[in-house]
Automatic annotation (TrEMBL), chains A, B, C, D, E, F, G, H, I, J:
It comes from the Bacteria. Pfam families: MIase. Residues 1-89 form the Muconolactone isomerase domain. This is Muconolactone Delta-isomerase. Pathway: Aromatic compound metabolism; beta-ketoadipate pathway; 5-oxo-4,5-dihydro-2-furylacetate from catechol: step 3/3. Homodecamer.
């Protein structure tokens, strides 16, 4: 089952540059694992924003939630999830 | 997987009373079948409104969509669906 | 009478890990008591969020408020309550 | 238990003046019965609008829904209900 | 003239418990004076929230504003006011 | 007491030009009476819209409602009212 | 350049079943041409709604607009378009 | 003074094709006059919608309103106007 | 040209009482100058809020912006501006 | 392709005046480069706000995003982007 997921990530102003760099690289590594596992299928940047739209696939909303919370930046993300059904033209 | 589903049903003013009664009884019959199949689990009335909140279970959003569109009043319903994940206290 | 209740919990960044762990375990314990008392009937995770949707039962809104404020994390919760009426198919 | 209830009533343009007068007088009569029964406690006009705010008392949301749907103009009302808890200063 | 008034009070996290207790008792005392003066007529708790809905009576919006700003917690309240007209059934 | 009042007037497409002209001239006549009575103090056009913002003065919301409903176009107006308090710089 | 496009299609109640069937088949045929041309890349059903989310690719917003207006049901669609930038992980 | 103006035009379903064509050509002619007069400076299409964003220049909001109402399709437009100030980088 | 302007002023909790008093008196002095210059015409208090609605007159939005930014409390104000056109009844 | 872009810039209260002045001058310098490159075409001030509306031109949303993030104040801007299509009157 596919989901459209939006994140808006806001790291706190007080976070050190080192911690930020660390988090970004851990985030990218985890995202790559989720891509290889077929859970994260596409990612787009919302122009002008620190926000991201993604296409995810998971057996259900619980598995999706587990994938999302496995992202190292999850504690600073505001996430919204939209469940998608298959369109008859693609069935 | 469970879903929280809201319907707001607005039959057109021009529909005859006979057609309304027919639709309501067909709706109830189909809802009963969906309950027996374990797809429709609970239904609540939103007080003061023709709206209904329901708890549904389906393998994915495509199966849920098929169940919803099988309701005889579907063409006159405004429906919103919220995907639910299992809460750790209930896992 | 049943109520649909949404919480969005935001513990402050400055809270220590110890205090967090303590609060989470106190929260779970109190939730279990409310389940046993039949006040808290179901709980779902909103996927991708620290938010929770619950089905509660209480004699009236005052009793519900007392149950909600008895949760140890209540001071950090943003809560919205929707009163539900019995649906004729379930009466 | 008390409820704050808002109605916005919109009788269709095509309704005859006779039917309108009939409905308004039936509405007033039913409202009076509900006042005498202690269900409808106060009613205010929202200035400049055909809308009304009311204070209602009913054992639960199901009983409130039944009272609201007993109003002759109910089919043309858009209704929203807010459940109220007792304030500690009034307990 | 009556007004429906909503408050959402948010005392800052950094306020001491002593200062909070002091403020709450001063608030209750001032509210009691306003009740006796017939300015504050009813107060309800919004279930699950630190919010309050009240029915107030004042000669006009200026007098209402003065009553509201006389509350000791006013600096931390987010307040919205709705002017009410007399309903013909109560005139 | 002053009020800021917004109207959005939408005469039905099916109304004849004659009826429209009649209504507009009756509207203007009634507005003039309300200006002379000191109830309607100012009127502005919202640029690009059939909407109007007005400054009204009335003893209370009930008197304001009566003034607004005395406008011949009232049945086709969507009206919102905001109660205003005196600013200390003007007291 | 990719775009996320939402449609909500509402054919008028008065349209004959024949005209509806004709339109749906013309819509499907045009969608297939746009898929073959690489303009329409994915389509999902929003569960419970007549709405569709699609992933489109076009050189710019003008070319996208031309593709959208070439759909036979365009006159009855409410469309919203969100421009997407490439995410660095996919560059 | 410049203004950013959005129109959403919705000609009624019942309008004949002939009347539509007539209106569109009258609209284009009037727009051209307003461009020559320097009142209408730019016009963009909102992709996927019958909506238009325009940059207009007029001495004040009253002159802008007169320009907008001179458009033949004005009775079927929903218009919103945003007043713009000169940016210091362009002063 | 007239403008309807709303301010919501929120001085930071950490500002000293002395600095607050200073700012308020500077604000009042500047407002008086703007009144004498015919730029600030009326000011109302929104009951229950630290917000203010004002009627301003300026040759255009740039001059209005300059007047607003000349207020000493401007850095802590959230301001919204609505351009007004002359109503035909007042022309 | 053109884009309408809104920024709302909020430098933190704790930033020194020196750092602010530095940032503003770097911002102006970068904006000038983007104007010379034909990427930034127009800029307007939203009256009464620290917000800016701009007309930008870029080959696609990715190039626009790169231009926006090259602004020195980008980390403190809340940005929204609207893709524009060419209007047939200007084609």
């Amino acid at each position: 089952m596919e989901f459209l997921v939006r994140f808006d990530t806001a790291l706190p102003e007080t976070m050190t540059d080192e911690r930020r760099a660390e988090l970004k690289s851990a985030e990218r590594a985890r995202a790559m694992e989720l891509r290889e596992a077929g859970v994260l299928k596409r990612l787009w940047r919302v122009p002008g924003r620190r926000a991201v739209v993604g296409l995810w696939e998971a057996p259900d909303a619980t598995a999706l939630h587990d994938a999302l919370t496995s992202l190292p930046q999850f504690p600073w993300m505001d996430v919204t999830v939209e469940a998608l059904a298959t369109h008859p033209q693609e069935a």
